[in-house]
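Late entry, evening session. Most of the bench is empty. Finally got around to the prediction I had been postponing all week. Sequence below, unchanged from the version circulated by S.P.
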Amino acid sequence: MHSIRVVALGALFIIAGCKGAEQAKPADSAPAATPSAAAPGGEVKPGPDGKIIVVEMTTDETSSRFTPSEITARKGDVIRFTLKVGVHNVDFYPDSNAVKMGLPPTSEMLQLPGQTHDMLVTMEPGRYYFHCDPHAALGMKGHLTVVP
């Protein structure tokens, strides 16, 4: 059973890599934003009293991580996940957010430094777990606390 999971996970990484290769841009072009479903095709703007909270995604010789990994936000804020180094995504994994409704969709894999994924905070107040799918086992996880 374990080997089936390993093969399936390997296939997922290959598929993700092939999809990214189709979307690769020349080195001299600017990185594109990867918006959430809330605003297809561009950056997400915060609500009237909202702010943009930048979270960096990095892999280096010490770890794979979100910086910061503990985020506090309000409805209407935008979390801007920004790729620094590596290949990462953001997943508010439903199994780790039991009985929570309105979780954002899993982001696409960010592959080019500077790429972003904007997520408009629309969830109810509470604490939400998120991780990077390929690096969760390596500790790349965090929490978003939505306050009233």
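Two things to note before I forget:
The radius of gyration is 16 Å.
The chain has one domain: 28-147.
Will write this up properly tomorrow.
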